[in-house]
Design brief:
There is one protein chain. By secondary structure, the chain is mostly helical. It is 70% helix and 5% strand. It has a two-stranded antiparallel ribbon with strand order 1-2. Strands 3-4 form a two-stranded antiparallel ribbon. Strand 3 and strand 4 form a beta hairpin. Helix 3 runs antiparallel to helix 4, helix 3 packs across helix 5 and helix 4 packs antiparallel against helix 5. The C terminus is likely disordered.
C-alpha cells in the first residue's frame, strides 16, 4: 500500500528499505567514530610515550670511565698554558679539584629530577657518589703507579740508588688530603655562591715533591699515556 512522505507516494516496502538504509548509514557513522576515537587514542598514547622516552634520554647519566681523567687533564692543560709546565703539586691539586667539581655536578643533578642508567633503571645519587669515590681511588693508585714506574726506570739507569717507597706512600696520602681539602672548599664556596677554582695547596712534605719531581718529565710521560691523563 502506498503512503505519502512529504507529498510523494512511497510504498511500504520502499519505506522499509529507506529505514534500513538509514540505520545502516547511522551504523557506519558510529563505526567510523569508533575507529577515529581509537586512532586518536593510539596517536595520543604514542605521543605520550615519545615524550616519556625523550625525557628519559635527557635524564640518562652515563658513567664514563674516562670522565675523571678528562676533567683532571683539562685542569692540568690550563696550568701548562699558564706556567709552561706542571709538577706533582699541580697534579695533586688538579685531582682534588676534579673530585669536587664532579661531586658538585652529581649533587646538582639529583636536586629536582630523577636520573636513569643506560639500561633505563633509576640511578640514585648514592650510586653516583660510590662511582666517583671508586674513580678517585683508581686515580690515586694510578698516579702512584706512574711515579713508581718512573722511579724504577731511574733506578735501572743508575740515576737513583733505590725506589723512594716512603715518598710514594706519602704521595698517595696526599691525594686523599687534596680530596678532603677541596670538598671543604666546595662547601664553603657553595654557601658563599663562589665557583670552584684551582688552589696552590701543599699536601705532603717538600722532600716528597723534590724526590718525585726529579723522577722525570711528568708532562711528557702523561701526554704519552693518552686518555689516562
Amino acid at each position: 500500500m502506498p503512503v505519502c512522505i512529504s507529498g510523494n507516494p512511497v510504498s511500504v516496502l520502499d519505506g522499509l528499505k529507506l529505514h534500513k538504509e538509514h540505520l545502516k548509514s547511522q551504523g557506519n557513522q558510529k563505526e567510523g567514530q569508533k575507529v577515529f576515537q581509537r586512532d586518536s587514542l593510539e596517536v595520543s598514547q604514542f605521543s605520550k610515550n615519545r615524550e616519556i622516552l625523550i625525557d628519559k634520554i635527557k635524564h640518562t647519566a652515563v658513567q664514563s670511565v674516562t670522565l675523571f681523567g678528562d676533567t683532571r687533564a683539562e685542569i692540568l692543560e690550563g696550568v701548562r698554558q699558564e706556567k709552561g709546565r706542571y709538577d706533582y703539586s699541580d697534579v695533586v691539586n688538579a685531582c682534588g679539584l676534579s673530585y669536587a667539581r664532579l661531586y658538585a655536578k652529581i649533587e646538582q643533578r639529583h636536586k629536582k629530577e630523577p636520573y636513569y642508567k643506560a639500561d633505563g633503571t633509576l640511578l640514585t645519587k648514592e650510586e653516583e657518589m660510590e662511582w666517583l669515590d671508586m674513580q678517585y681511588e683508581q686515580e690515586a693508585a694510578w698516579q702512584k703507579s706512574c711515579a713508581r714506574t718512573a722511579a724504577q726506570g731511574q733506578a735501572v739507569q743508575g740515576k737513583i740508588s733505590e725506589i723512594p717507597a716512603k715518598e710514594l706512600e706519602e704521595l698517595e696520602d696526599s691525594f686523599y688530603q687534596a680530596k678532603d681539602a677541596y670538598m671543604k672548599l666546595y662547601r664553603e664556596n657553595r654557601q658563599a655562591g663562589k665557583p670552584l677554582s684551582l688552589q696552590n695547596y701543599v699536601f705532603g712534605s717538600s722532600r716528597m715533591y723534590e724526590v718525585l719531581n726529579r723522577l722525570g718529565n711528568l708532562q711528557g710521560r702523561w701526554n704519552h699515556a693518552g686518555s689516562s691523563v
